[in-house]
Amino acid sequence: MNCNKTEDQLIDYLLNILNQEDRGELESHLGSCLKCQQKLESFKKAWTLLEKWKPFISPSDLRQIKQEAMDNIRAQNLIEEKSSKESFISTIESEKRKAQIGRQKTSKVLIWKTIINNKIIASATAAAIVIGILLGVNFINKLSVPGVVWGQLVERIENIDFYTYRTRSISLDIHGTFVGQQTSHFYVWKDGFRMDRHFPWINYDIIQYTSWLDKTFISVHPEIKKYTRTLLTDEYINRMHFREDPRLSIKMFMSYNYTKLGRKIVDGQEAEGIEINDPKFGKFGFEGCIAQIWVNVDTNLPVLLELEGTSGHGIVETKVISENFKWNGEYDESIVEPDLSEYSLVAEVESIPVNEESVVLALHKFSELVNGKYPSSLANSSATVEIIMTYLKIHKEKMGTGFLFWQEEDFDWEGYTALHSLLNTTCTFYAELFNTDKEIVYHGEKVTADDSDLPLMRWKITDDKYRVLFGDLSVEDVSEEQLTELEEALNR
Amino acid sequence: MTNYSDEHLMSSLIEERDLGAFEELLTRYEKRLLIYIIRLVGDYHRAQDLFQETFYRIYKHRKSFNPDLRFSTWAYRIATNLCINELKRKKHELELPIEDISLGKVYSHRPPKGVNKMLSNPSAEGKLIKKDLEDKIRDLVKSLPEKLRSIFILSKYQGLSNQEIAQILEMPLGTVKSRLRQGFKLLLELIEKRGLIDEL
């Protein structure tokens, strides 16, 4: 063989792209040609040298990158889902488009888009709460000021007696399917609030009365003439009051950073808006949210509130519009005090203290119900809806489709009401730790009761220690390094 | 889920929009595709963006997946096309210093996590020397023309067969082979020129 011609062949041999026949020929040549042997050896060395390039990606980077990819896809999924169905959504969209009319050119992009881009989290109850926040505007600065004096909003909320408004919301889970959809009519008075909830997806109504004064939470089912009552402890009321009383909430709300959006026409009236998108705006159990408030420039009273986002680590995406505000409307006792004479009380439970034991109990009860699964999210908003969905699913499996579990003769009202209360407590626990920067993280969508080695929930207890609640609900305090290992196991 | 083939997962994704299937595919391909993109564009942060775009497109265009192809072929094809477009686009821009995840480099944005951990590790010094060699090799491969680079990386580093590379790049098998040879020859020249063989 002519050795001057074999360099390409030697390379092909090394790269394994030489045909069978030439390969055999070259191999026999190599046996007798030292020059070629040396050349091949140097090629092999170079080949080995090239192997030394091994880009390194840390497991935490990988985890983060994967999370980001999943977030992107969930957002995309949601867009597809939204565009493919739900007239409700299209109504909201059209509302939104209407709302855009008149908005100044300098205003922000659609909130929905912003949220998808920023992966910011919110919740439906957030809406209720934020709406509540707005309620407070009492004194009307009749046209004396050309614009809304946002800085005085907090001061103006001292004495509100009675007001009403409507809220529409829709929640979708990560698969783009319904978690729930509801319209609610709120009546708020000094000592409590009533929420008429309508669930269009099951065509069902529930009326809920929360009274700070009576320390009760009453849930009325008009269709079946039944109601449940939860007795609220002082401790619970203090927490809830703080969370849901508009007069307290608005102070918190306005303490976040906001940007002014300019003016637009809402219901034929000129309104001025602000957007709250402070990353720290994560009160009440959601991990962040974006809200817009529009205040009538003449009356200085809120006329529209829009809120969008997802809750529970992107599990549930929610969109809420609140409108039809009636400020200081006619107060009627029958609105705020339910006449239950024709109704039967089917369950009465007490709210339980907000602590670790209650959380463990709540999660245990929930997992018992659904073969070891845990609630996917602990955002306040999803608690009711998730329980309803869970019961519906169980009922469907047991009875086939047809009618709702509430209508069952032997339905376990005590169990249902207790679980509802327990889960609310758990959400409160989660929210409080979240809001006090305790780095609480919940992995309910990944961890089941069988996962005794996987962390279901964790939060910081000292500078270098975390408390971990495992899938089997055992508790252990671990170091940061141990926690990292535990959470890496979640992604395996 | 873990027992299903990639193609089976793709069909779940297409037919049922099963995000669990997508997540499984992501888990299977995350590391190898990300490393491939890093090697191809030579920039960790740009690679991350391109990786996200790759998976976004996989999801968005899932219905155009040809079931006659392997999922890996399709995924590599999307990634390669994105990277090549990016490299072409970059060519028109001002040449910027290369960033990489290698130790000892200056990070203009954010250092990858894990680096600090490695730096505080007693054995990190040895790794620094190793990284220096890695940087040189990376620069070698980066200096290959684009049309040779992707083929070389797919073959040498990603361990794909020439047949699969031909499918990914939609070119004849013979072209893959000749470009592979061409690429390696160029690298041999550069290794010799830069005296790198002694560093082994």
**Largest sheet data of chain A:** 12 strands, mixed
Tally of distinct domains of chain A: 3
Estimated radius of gyration of chain B: 18 Å
β-sheet strand percentage of chain B: under 5%
Fraction of residues in helix of chain B: 55-70%
Structural class of chain B comes to mainly alpha
Report the structural category of chain A.
alpha+beta
What best-fitting shape of chain A do the alpha-carbon axes yield?
elongated
- Total beta-strand segments of chain A: 16
Q: Report the CATH superfamily of the largest domain in chain B.
A: RNA polymerase sigma factor, region 2, helix turn helix motif
N-to-C CA distance of chain A: 55 Å
Descriptive overview:
- The complex is a heterodimer of chains A (492) and B (200).
- With 492 residues, chain A is α+β, with helices and mostly antiparallel strands.
- Chain A has three domains: 47 residues, no CATH class; 275 residues, outer membrane lipoprotein receptor (LolB), chain A, CATH 2.50.20.10; 139 residues, no CATH class.
- In chain A, 38% of the residues lie in helices and 25% in strands.
- Chain A contains 14 helices and 16 strands.
- In chain A, helix 7 crosses helix 9.
- With 200 residues, chain B is an all-alpha fold.
- Chain B folds into two domains: 96 residues, Rna Polymerase Sigma Factor, Chain: A, CATH 1.10.1740.10; 53 residues, Arc Repressor Mutant, subunit A.
- Chain B is 68% helix and 0% strand.
- Chain B has nine helices and no strands.
- In chain B, helix 8 packs across helix 9.
- Chain B starts with 5 loop residues before the first helix and ends in a 7-residue tail after the last helix.
- About 18% of the residues of chain B have low confidence.
